[in-house]
Amino acid sequence: MNENISRIVWIYAISLILLGVIGYFVTGLQSVTALIPAFFGIVVLLILLVFGRVTKPKVTLWILIVFSLIGFIATVKGVPKVFELLQGIEMQRPAAVISQTIMTGLSILTSIVLIVKSKIIKK
Question: Which residues lie closer than 8 Å to 75 by C-beta, 6 or more apart?
């Protein structure tokens, strides 16, 4: 797999892992669901490490694109809530709203970059 693409995926995965671990500590180690981004990041790393070596790079790239789009779709519902949070409206789980918004941004950004890179590889 292209070294630039691998680096992008590593940054995405490590960012998600850090987001999950930091979120878990911010919630006082009480909410295991705060670790969801970390689990997602671990799966992304496994996809890169396993499929990146045994399949064609383009197949791995598209698997990673689909997975990052799933990350976007799964978390985008938290984005409108962050605007309410910024207005001072109380939320039940503000850390979850912030975490979802960050994961949404990371996932869509990664999806776009990987799609652009896949077009460059085709040329």
Answer: 100, 101, 103, 104, 107
Domain that holds residue 108: 3-122
Distance of alpha carbon 58 from alpha carbon 94, whole angstroms: 38
Contact between 80 and 37 under an 8 Å Cβ cutoff? The reply is: no
93 Rama class: left (phi>0) / alpha (psi -120 to 50) / beta: beta
* Distance (Å, whole) CA 74 – CA 68: 10
Q: What is the pLDDT of residues 78-97, one digit of tens each?
A: 899 999 989 988 888 888 99
Tally the domains of the chain: 1
DSSP labels, 21-37: HHHHHHTTT--GGGGHH
Identity of the residue numbered 5: I
How far, CA to CA in Å, does 40 sit from each of 32, 37, 69, 90?
Answer: 13, 5, 12, 28
Q: What is the pTM of this model?
A: 0.88
